[in-house]
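Deviations from the work plan: none for this task. Representative record:
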Amino acid sequence: MADVNRGNRPLSPHLQVYKLPIAAVTSILTRITGHALVAGVLLLVWWLVAAVSGPEAFACADWVVRSWIGFIVLTGAAWALWYHTLAGIRHLFYDAGIGLEIDEARKSSWAIIIGSVVLTLISLILFFIG
Amino acid sequence: MRYITPRKAATGMGSARSGTQHHWAMTVSACALVLLTPAFLLVVGSAIGLPREGVIAYFGRPYPGIVTALFVIVGMVHFMKGTRIMIDDYIYNTERKVAIIASVIFGWAVISAAVFALAKMAFITIAI
């Protein structure tokens, strides 16, 4: 007992010092984007309610929606919405037992990250030219 | 004497006796939202930038109004069920109950506000 090596054993990974695999990052981001999306919904619902409340209320909400703050919140919400949608579709495949191997999960993780950025850029382009 | 077999009593039931309804409800609302998300983004993208009268007339039309109402209602029900999972994972005891109640009240408040605004826009548009 006295000569037990206490300093050189492998340590079990701890979340704060453990480099998360990409599949774990995309998994927790699904939950984070889902909850953060409520900011975008709140902004848009406030804007809708303001439109039927009166001209002053709408001017205020519309100013926020079209300001740089609104642009950041709504662009962020668009990305979060696309990310959550793609990750949710992956969950539907997971439920069907498809794509559960580590290598497949790694590939679908990158597909979700790249796909969400591409779809957000397409949304922005459609918004500004449409 | 129970006539039900043990297998029948257990099928589809977890320890909470409510089984897989929550997961199934998330699956159904997720599929609906996959369809609603692109439709909603196109609708909202067309509406931002319009003057107040334009916004009211736009959402007073059937397609934009229905897509927006569906997205907010199905989205917030999906949100409430999603927060429930997060609350169950991270919050305990009385705080858990308070958080669940707050999440449900908040979700229905957002739904009511959106439905009220959209209904009023539809009625204003009819009056026009």
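Residues 121 and 127 of chain B are 10 Å apart (CA to CA).
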